[in-house]
Amino acid sequence: MILLILWMVLRLGALVAAEPVLQTGVADATKDKPQSKLWFAQGTWWGWLPTTDGSAVWKRTAQGWRRQNALDGALRGLPGQADVWADAKEAAAVLVEKQRLGFVRLRFAGGSYVVVGKPVVFTLSAEHKTETATLVRDDQRRWWIAYDHGRRMFVRASSDESGERWLEPIEVSTQKTDTDDICSIAALPGGVGVIWSDQASDTVWFRFHSSRQGVTKWNPVEVVAQGNRTADDHFHSALAADGTLFVATKNSLDTMGQPQLVLRVRDATGKWSNYPYALRTTGGEPSRPIALVGGGRLHLLHSVYRRKGLGSVVVGFSTAVKPLVLDGGAEVLIEGASGVNNVTGSKAALPEGAEWVVLASDGKGGVYEGVVR
């Protein structure tokens, strides 16, 4: 049920960006749906994006986004599609391609980032293709990667905080999904949780692992939602300071005049609630949503695929975390000449007073910027 409460508008800055702020040489450089490619550290924003021969890190400066060329040698030849975890001094990424995953750690030292240790590469079965993967660090400082492979959902955990040694993969799903389904992992108080879509059974599932248990001991699978075409492979999560997990998702209802997106909320006690929002209309189709949370505010951004050849744009709106106010209203945040898609941001909440920077990309290698204030 849509919340019919008055919507409290947050000003969305950087109104419209007509030109890209950087070029990667890779189409749709800010994909994929559950991934976060930006982080805020050392007083500025950073991005980790694919290139034609691997991936690269960019820094946002007063003169624009600047590629950190000193890291190029270490990242060359690795998978390019990154999901980034970061704090004030470190950044790490899981790097994804169809049959390989990579893990790379960076540390800020001497005014720039340097690679810590050697990148780790996991080779996956050539029988199946992996679409995406996400990365978190739990409160025991171990790393966790979640990924789809062969209609099943897996995690790998590091054996220590270095990320140099990893345990064997564990399947968290209990039945095969559709070939189009994916998963995402979130760090929660006391452990980690994996959420995944299952379009074969029209279910969204979740499974929690406590960091105080062994790595092979998982809680039973939770049903987030089931039926009425609720499952789709578009979702992105954000964690509030009180342990509430917000997951912005798309459903498969695809009906004119009905909500196309669903905010799924897991409170600190483990109870799930589902809030549809963003109507599908004759003017456009909402898709690829993300959630950002911090300072008591929840920001929900998504693409709108506009009709009549107008191209896609990124729109957004915000609400207080309590009470949530969702009515589907939104303002254009990023627009490009050839259409933009796959908006991406940061996993972490921001320091007080900082602005959210987000990026989206086009199909020609261009990356565009928006600012959420």
Q: How would you summarize this macromolecular structure in one to three sentences?
A:
The protein has 373 residues and is an all-beta fold. It contains 1 helix and 29 strands.
**Number of extended strands:** 29
Outline the low-pLDDT stretches.
1-17
Query: Taking all residues together, what is the mean pLDDT?
Result: 92
Helix/sheet category: mainly beta
Structural commentary:
The N terminus is likely disordered. The protein is mainly β. The chain has a domain of 173 residues. The chain contains 1 helix and 29 strands. The chain is globular. Strands 1, 2, 27, 28 and 29 form a 5-stranded antiparallel β-sheet that branches. A 4-stranded antiparallel β-sheet has the order 3-4-5-6, with no helix packed on it.
Give keywords.
373 residues; 5-stranded antiparallel β-sheet; 1 helix; 29 strands
List the topology elements.
Layout: E1 12-13, E2 22-23, E3 38-41, E4 44-51, E5 54-61, E6 64-67, H1 72-75, E7 81-86, E8 90-97, E9 100-109, E10 112-123, E11 133-137, E12 143-149, E13 152-157, E14 170-171, E15 183-188, E16 191-198, E17 203-210, E18 222-226, E19 235-239, E20 245-250, E21 259-266, E22 272-279, E23 284-294, E24 297-306, E25 312-320, E26 331-334, E27 341-344, E28 356-361, E29 366-372
Antiparallel strand pairs: 1-29, 2-29, 3-4, 4-5, 5-6, 7-8, 8-9, 9-10, 11-12, 12-13, 13-14, 15-16, 16-17, 17-18, 19-20, 20-21, 21-22, 23-24, 24-25, 25-26, 27-28, 28-29
